[in-house]
Amino acid sequence: MSEFLEPFERMLENVSTPAAVRAIERGGSPDAMWQAFAESGFLDALVPEERGGAGLALADVQPLWMALGRHAVPLPVGETMIARALLDGAPDGPVALAVAAPGQSVVVPFGLVAAYMLIESDCALHMVEASGALTGVVASLAARMTCNDLPSPHSTAPTSGLRPIAAILRAALIAGASGRVTEMTAAYANERVQFGKPIGRQQALQQQMAIMAEEMVAARIASQLGCAGGFPPSLVAAATAKAIASRAAARVAATAHAVHGAIGISEEHDLQLFTRRLHEWRLADGSESYWNGLLGRERLVSDARSVDFVRAHLQPEAATG
Amino acid sequence: MFDTLTLAALPAEGEAIRPAIRAIAEQAIANASADVRARSWSGFDRDFSRLLGRSGFLGLTLPKCYGGAELGPFARFVVVEELLSAGAPVAAHWIADRQSAPLILNYGSEAQREYYIPRICRGELVFCIGMSEPGSGSDLASVRTRAERTAAGWRVNGQKIWTTNAAHGDYMIALLRTSGSAGDRHAGLSQLIIDLKAPGVTVRPITDLTGDAHFAEVFFEDVELPADALIGEEGEGWKQVTAELAFERSGPERIYSSVVLLDAWIAHLRDARRDDPATCALVGDFTARLGTLRAMSIACTARLALGESPVVEASLVKDLGTRFEQELPTRIGDDLASHPDEGVDAELYRTLLYVTHIAPSFSLRGGTREILRGIIARGMGLR
Ligand SMILES: Cc1cc2nc3c(=O)[nH]c(=O)nc-3n(C[C@H](O)[C@H](O)[C@H](O)COP(=O)(O)OP(=O)(O)OC[C@H]3O[C@@H](n4cnc5c(N)ncnc54)[C@H](O)[C@@H]3O)c2cc1C
User: Fold this and answer.
1) Which residue of chain A has the CA closest to B288?
2) Residue of A175, A174, A167, A179 lying closest to A213 (CA atoms)
3) What is the best residue among A203, A205, A207 to mutate for testing ligand 1's pocket, by most ligand atoms within 8 Å of CB?
4) Which residue, A100, A75, A222, is CA-closest to A161?
5) Whether residue B243 has pLDDT greater than 90
6) Average of per-residue pLDDT across A240-256
7) pLDDT tens, B137-162?
8) What is the CA A281 to chain-centroid distance, rounded?
9) How far separated are the first and last CA of chain B, in Å rounded?
């Protein structure tokens, strides 16, 4: 697994620097950065080998998605991997994912930097050229798109739809960004001196940061659970991953900002590159309450004991352990 | 950060044991009401523990030469999971199996291993842990109860408190000061095995707010112990206790304390045919957290299986786990009482109130929330 992760991480260190992220968020061209991903071959990670891809399992790709979150990558890299896995003959270029009913206006993460959008509408998948308006949220790369006059479908949607797949991607991005934010926060707490000692020596802050670490690790493990089964993921796996990660996203971001004080909300500090994403990804493809609702409904139709239920639905394959 | 805590599968070695332990657990609880099953941790039944011993479910991780099964931590995880999710009474072997036997194996003399461990594996010996004292709770290193050397061995004077199982136990493993003063902190502490029937030992049960009396005060007045009562090295008690606490904090028992209530509530929802969005969201929240915590606990077990002592990771899982355990009764109570026209049967009501009242103990026993968070903060490089 780390055999893929290491070169991927190295590439991200080089191409997705805070300066490069900011440039794209300010409207600069994403082409050069995208070129690096296109040439790396990673975009076909989930494409089966017989179609010329790497044929990796979701569990193998999960660390790559986390790395995208860790580096605040301003492009729909994970989305494009998913689109290429789902469709035979997906076009070149960055693809964003959306689920929308006809006439509905939705927010599409990375819609402004995508060349295409893969839209699920009426149980079918449509590939369209990216379009859409600014959301009006500063520095956001999401687009607001109204789903009208779709071309004829490219294929039918997976039985459970596009949303569970998109949700496990968001959960992994959240887990990666949460890890980064937790490390930044611990490092800052050791540097910043008030009352004659680093603020990290204050027990009140230590207790808050311990909780933050717990939430961060929970998001990571939940994301791994979401990716532990097959592709596309089961509803229970996706719901668990996204519900836990979304919950963590808001809490991790809040503690990070509390510990950083005023500097953390300034544009110049890198923290905001990650916390803005945490909040956006928490809302994207269903928040914790949305997924909890679906998961609860699924749980209530089973008369299994709770431990047996989670055991049956959230069990990584013994072989991968 | 904490990158080694990562998703791990329960290997076949663990799963293989599940059907057999499930059959025994189901039999044990066949006639028990939910509020009795909710007491699982503190359900004391020597016959049941002996049955588990005879059936090969105790000492799972211990060497065969001492009567163990040499199976590794995953098998133990499955056994604990089955017992607790059924709500079987585990108190009579719990501490001995989880903490005392591994401690004696790691630090004890050969004679101590040969004497105690096979009996623990047969479910015959009830151990208790004498760490806390009236003046030493979170500040454990400040214990004052003393063991002085005598010609024949040791003489103990002092007092322990909150000692689970002391009233019907056989032995206590006590953390005692053998040299220096309480001001010396970690130095001068040792662990000794005390026969609770020895002259000079007085045990006074303490009744808790639910009416149960599972812990006790223990007084020592010139209690004479043989020389081989000492476990490990004199003065190494603090190091030994720290390792012991990693065993105590890493298991699935830190997630499942309220799971009998959770299942009773879900059965109620099914009977009442209630599946509105708010109800589903609450059920889903509990389910997602349970599944994630279980995966975190298995991840901890995987570290143990590699021979590590995941002290920080175990603290992290325990703190998150006890928060979940404590939220269940609060939110289930809110749910049931916000449907006053639905009717709650007597058994579910008793179970809810029992778990509600005992829930504060979940984040006290085995180290308080604040102390655990301090350990995590140290793991984050903040102290
Ligand atoms: C059900 C149950 C079973 C138990 N069984 C056993 C047993 O078998 N053997 C045994 O030895 N003990 C046992 N205990 C005792 C348990 O280990 C102690 O209760 C625990 O360590 C806390 O000590 P205390 O109760 O004296 O609280 P205190 O140490 O007085 O703490 C009170 C509060 O102050 C906080 N606090 C204390 N110091 C600090 C600090 N430095 N920073 C921040 N907050 C702080 C604590 O977190 C807590 O919230 C049991 C307890 C319970 C509830």
Assistant:
1) A240
2) A179
3) A203
4) A100
5) no
6) 98
7) 999 999 999 999 999 999 999 999 99
8) 6
9) 16
ipTM: 0.92
Q: Tokens for B156?
A: 């103990």
How many other C-beta atoms are found inside a 10 Å radius of the C-beta of residue B122? 17
- Name which of A63, A44, A71 is nearest A3 in CA terms: A63
Residue type, B107: Y
Pocket lining: B361 vs ligand 1, CB cutoff 6 Å: yes
pLDDT value at residue A2: 65
Beta strands in A60-153 (DSSP E): 95-99, 105-108, 116-121, 124-129, 133-134, 143-146
Q: What are phi and psi of A17, to 5 degrees?
A: -75, 160
Contact A77, A68 (CB under 8 A): yes
User: How far is A41 from A59, CA to CA, in rounded Å?
Assistant: 18
pLDDT, residue A319, reads 42
Q: The pTM is what?
A: 0.94
Helix H or strand E encompassing A178: helix A163-191
In chain A, which residue's Cα lies nearest the Cα of B84? Answer: A307
* Higher per-residue confidence, B164 vs B243: B164
Q: Please tell me the predicted confidence (pLDDT) of residue B94.
A: 94
How is residue A273 written in tokens?
A: 């590159």
Mean pLDDT of chain B: 94
Task: Read off the tokens for A168.
Answer: 């496990």
- H-helix or E-strand containing B292? helix B277-305
pLDDT over threshold 80, residue A318: no
Residue with tokens 């061209």: A29
Q: How does pLDDT run across A174-215, given as a tens digit for each residue?
A: 999 999 999 999 999 999 999 999 999 999 999 999 999 999
Residue B146: strand pairing partners:
B157, B177
Query: How many A/B residue pairs have CB atoms within 8 Å?
Result: 190
H or E segment at B246?
A: helix B237-250
CA distance A242 to A168: 6
B368 close to ligand 1 (CB < 6 Angstrom): yes
Contact criterion met (CB below 8 Å) for B260 and B88: no
Provide the pLDDT for residue A320: 38
Length of chain A: 321
Residue with tokens 């002996």: B50
- Bridge partner list, B130: B174
B164 lines ligand 1 (CB under 6 A): yes
For B290-311, the pLDDT digits (tens) are 999 999 999 999 998 898 888 8
Closest of B62, B70, B29, B380 to residue B247, by C-alpha: B62
Q: What is the mean pLDDT of residues A78-106?
A: 94
Two structure tokens written together for A232: 């596309």
d(CA B262, CA B278): 16
> What is residue A317's predicted lDDT score, i.e. its pLDDT?
64
Beta strands in A177-223 (DSSP E): 193-194, 197-198
Q: Whole-angstrom Cα distance, residue B53 to residue A99? A: 56
Q: How does A236-264 read in b/e, with b if 16+ C-beta sit within 10 Å? A: bbbbbbbbbbbbbbbbbbebbbebbeeeb
Greater model confidence, B254 or A289: A289
Contact list, A209 vs chain B (CB under 8 Å) = 377, 380, 382
